[in-house]
Design brief:
CATH class of the largest domain: Alpha Beta
Number of helices: 11
Distance between the termini: 82 Å
CATH topology of the largest domain: Purple Acid Phosphatase, chain A, domain 2
CATH architecture of the largest domain: 4-Layer Sandwich
Radius of gyration: 27 Å
Structural class: alpha/beta
Helix content: 25-40%
Order of helices and strands: EEEHEHEHHEEEHEHEEEEEEHEHEHHH
Strand order of the largest sheet: 6-5-4-1-13-14
């Protein structure tokens, strides 16, 4: 059977406040065609279908239109979807009874019985071949929140050990149901040890509270393939070809400027064969000017030399501007926007750098010493720490005037 693995679509995401509906629709249209040309039997979507837990009506319509088109184009296609940390598990599962009649299976929640034990049957999705025979048992595990995984007392890392135990018990259950000629695969939406992360992944980790990572050994060696989501860069984990992140289909930050996004396709009989990555077209380009930070007057000249608008707005490249400043520049955005007026780019980000400090590291100031400092001294230290230079006389004079007015008002 031929399987396609993808994840982290983030439908509804804004890229620096720009709507990405055009890009997501182009990706989904491309995917419908790929499912046909590659003759895919099973589509695995490993979490973060939507970017927020309460997606817009437009985002929901886009997703379910894709499911309708994909299953109409290939009536035998089986789709398994798990919820990610950005998804609302219950909202994603809401149409589950209706979709299962079309071989679309959605797993958002980890259900438990009356005794509080995980119902692993609800996490197990059988996959059939064209003759109607079950050939694969899929452990469709969604993003695991506190209370979803087994509680282990007196352990050093309750999250890591709890999630590892869940996958161990899930495999044991699936293995007990597996018959001759059947294989087991698994899905997950989590952060594994040694995964290479992007800038956005780093912020995700902070939002999640820095939760611990899961080792590749959490997945039993007899699991033929582990389809992971959550990390936005495609990669294999632990040196294992069969434990993989597919990555996100669209670039999520400018750190992915030269990164090729992809889906993973493989065949599974007794073992995996013909595993390959298929590059996803870039529907809207990312552009960085200049490639490394330069003084503002040089940057303005480069921006003014850009070509005039010659595309529809939805296809115009996203632009990051990199500037090297030696001090505050209150009119920075206005100057850049003026230079870009009518140009064939969309300004998304201004990355400002200052000269590296040649002075010794800033001293640690105790609360007692801070009380001894005058406001002008504190201002000077903050300015030096941020801009790596002394306060210019004109700004120093303005600060003294403001400080004097504040003191007079206080008196």
């Amino acid at each position: 059977m031929k399987i396609l693995h993808t994840a982290d679509w983030h439908i509804g995401q804004l890229f620096h406040e720009y709507d990405r509906s055009y890009e997501h629709q182009k990706f989904l249209d491309w995917l419908v065609q790929l499912l046909q040309t590659e003759q895919i039997d099973v589509l695995l979507i490993s979490g973060d279908v939507f970017d927020i837990s309460n997606p817009s009506a437009t985002s929901i319509k886009m997703f379910y239109t894709f499911l309708n088109q994909a299953t109409k184009a290939n009536p035998d296609l089986q789709i398994i979807i798990t919820a990610g940390n950005h998804d609302s598990a219950s909202r994603l599962e809401a149409p589950k009874p209706l979709l299962e009649s079309s071989n679309v299976h959605i797993i958002g929640l980890v259900e438990k019985d009356e005794e509080g034990q995980i119902d692993y049957q609800k996490l197990l999705v059988p996959i059939q071949n064209h003759a109607g025979e079950i050939k694969i048992q899929c452990l469709a595990v969604p993003f695991l929140r506190m209370g979803d995984y087994p509680s282990i007392k007196d352990c050093a890392n309750p999250y890591t050990e709890g999630v590892t135990k869940l996958y161990q018990e899930a495999f044991e259950y699936a293995n007990s149901k597996k018959q001759d000629g059947q294989s087991i695969i698994a899905m997950g939406h989590l952060h594994t040890h040694h995964a290479e992360i992007s800038d956005l992944d780093k912020s995700e980790r902070l939002i999640m509270g820095g939760v611990e990572c899961i080792p590749a050994t959490a997945f039993h060696p007899d699991i033929k393939y582990v389809a992971l989501g959550h990390i936005h860069k495609a990669q294999r984990i632990g040196g294992k070809e069969h434990v993989r992140y597919s990555g996100s289909p669209l670039p999520m930050s400018f750190s992915e400027l030269n990164y090729k996004h992809q889906v993973i396709v493989f065949e599974l009989a007794d073992d995996i064969s013909n595993l390959k990555s298929i590059e996803i077209p870039l529907f809207v380009r990312l552009q960085r000017i200049p490639l490394s930070s330069q003084p503002l007057h040089q940057v303005i000249a480069l921006l003014e030399a850009l070509p005039k608008m010659d595309e529809t707005l939805e296809t115009v490249p996203y632009l990051e501007v990199r500037v090297l400043l030696d001090g505050p520049e209150p009119a920075l955005r206005h100057k850049i926007e003026s230079a870009l007026m009518g140009k064939n780019v969309r300004l998304t980000k201004i990355d400002v750098k200052y000269p590296e400090s040649t002075k010794a590291q800033t001293e640690f100031i105790t609360p007692e010493k801070l009380n001894e400092l005058q406001p002008i001294d504190v201002f000077g230290k903050v300015y030096q720490a941020r801009f790596n230079s002394d306060v210019p006389p004109t700004i120093l004079q303005l600060f003294q005037e403001v400080a004097q007015e504040v003191n007079q008002t206080a008196e």
